[in-house]
Design goal:
The structure is a single chain. By secondary structure, the chain is of the alpha+beta class. It contains two helices and three strands; from the N terminus they run ββααβ. Strands 2-1-3 form a three-stranded antiparallel β-sheet. The longest helix has 6 residues.
C-alpha cells in the first residue's frame, strides 16, 4: 500500500492526497471542511473523483499484486 498513490477530489477541491497505506490509517476526513461548505442539502449530489496510481519507484516485485481498501461514508448532522 505504500507504493499506491491516492488522490481524491471533488470538483477542483482536494479531499485527500497520499498513499493508500496512509489513507487506511488516517483519521476520518471532514468533507464539509474540505469542500468549504457548511452543509450539503438533501437531495443533492456531490461528485468525487478517485485517481489511483502506482508509484514510479515500484519495482517488478509489485507486478500482479492487488490492493483492497475498505471505506465507510458517514453523514452526520
Amino acid at each position: 500500500c505504500s507504493k499506491i498513490n491516492v488522490v481524491i477530489t471533488s470538483g477542483l477541491k482536494p479531499v485527500y492526497s497520499g498513499t493508500a497505506l496512509a489513507f487506511g490509517t488516517t483519521a476520518p476526513i471532514d468533507l464539509l471542511n474540505k469542500l468549504s461548505v457548511s452543509s450539503i442539502a438533501a437531495p443533492s449530489t456531490t461528485p468525487f473523483t478517485f485517481a489511483v496510481t502506482l508509484d514510479s519507484s515500484a519495482g517488478n516485485t509489485y507486478q500482479g499484486l492487488k490492493v483492497l481498501q475498505a471505506m465507510t461514508w458517514a453523514f452526520q448532522s
